[in-house]
Write a structure and sequence with these properties.
Mean pLDDT: 97
CATH superfamily of the largest domain: Enolpyruvate transferase domain
CATH architecture of the largest domain: Alpha-beta prism
Bound molecules: shikimate-3-phosphate
Distance between the termini: 19 Å
Shape: globular
Number of strands: 25
Helix content: 25-40%
Strand content: 25-35%
CATH topology of the largest domain: UDP-n-acetylglucosamine1-carboxyvinyl-transferase, Chain
CATH class of the largest domain: Alpha Beta
Structural class: alpha/beta
Length: 439
Amino acid sequence: MSAAGWRVNPAPTLGGSIVVPGDKSISHRVMLLGAVAEAPLEVQGFLQSEDCLATRHAVESLGARVEELADGGLRVLPPEQLRAPSVPLDFGNSGTGIRLMTGLLAGHGLAAVLDGDESLRRRPMERVAAPLRSMGARIETTAGRPPLRISGQARLEAIDYALPVASAQVKSALLLAGLSAEGRTVVRQPAVCRDHTERLLESLGCPVERGEWGAAVTGPTRPSGGQVVVPGDFSSAAFFIVAGLLAGGEAPIELQGVGMNPTRTGLLDILRMMGGRIEISSPREESGEPVADLRIWRADLVGADVPPELVPLAIDELPALFVAAAYARGETRVRGAEELRVKESDRIAVMARGLEAVGVEVSEQADGLLIRGGGMRGGVVDSGGDHRVAMSFAIGAARASGPIEILDVANVATSFPGFEQAAATLGLSVEPLHAEHRA
Ligand code: S3P
């Protein structure tokens, strides 16, 4: 039985070393590109989380085969041609899975239904469906949300599209559609956002023009097969980066194999502005992605006014940042983060309520939060079913003045199966709280 919640006790001195699990964004992309590659694609470090497994099952429903290798890797065997799935494709909690797959399928002339859980059914899909329609795809949304219905139209025309929001999911969906479109598909971004699709396409032999302006692919083209190594997920590392700053002991916390793509590491810049000490060592490259090991020391943080241009570079780490801010001296302000309202939960509202529940002074704004540092006390926080909210409060509990109970944590398995064990290795005890045992 999975825990209904967690009880996390304060743990004043964390320390030790962990290997960070595989990157969720890159794992989705490897599965999707493997399914349309010219030859088998072998992958090491694929994240075996619920979200990425949903994408794996989806590509299997489209005719790809996925083999488990003796060394722990996977081999994706693409079919000659994708086939129409006989059942709706279920993406569970995963916005990345459903949006990228919509782009990939748009030009394949297949009929498919793409759906997900209650949270995913609340998330906006016209942001991908509308530009794909302008390429010639036939896609219906359900009042703008999943389920999505793609029907058999195949021929796509390339477009030149300016993203209204800096969304890597939308950019990627259009680039994936561009693989099967005739001509040069150009996606312009209003601010730099993650570029894993571009890097992976390049490492699989598909030329991509790219820069701060966005990216372009010229189709039709197909990725080659080959071998890919997925680096550790910076977004998973983020929880323990903050944990180390809040509650590290004499020795630093060490995180090994962390993906350091500069479109993902905005949190490091913000935490350094706040006085955090984070050392980067052994920089290396794996499959076109920068990777390094991190060492983090306890620090007395000070509040910061977060520059809005860092927001897309730290979008998934903002819940963890809000927790760091709760322990910083003075105020921390995050603006320009309205996208947080359409993530797995409304992360602005859910984080604000959670922070209040543990005694933090917080003011909710339309596009962010204003947090007055002062520390957390014990209490009960509802994660709203959001994995990143749950993990953020778990690490916040390390330095709280009493235990924090976190409700509705099952979705942690969507991105970080084994979070509790990783926390335990570093000295933070995250105990299951079954519904019937709650006081
Ligand atoms: C992702 C992009 C981000 C991020 C999400 C994963 C991706 O979303 O929040 O968790 O893999 O491309 P947006 O691009 O929609 O902001």
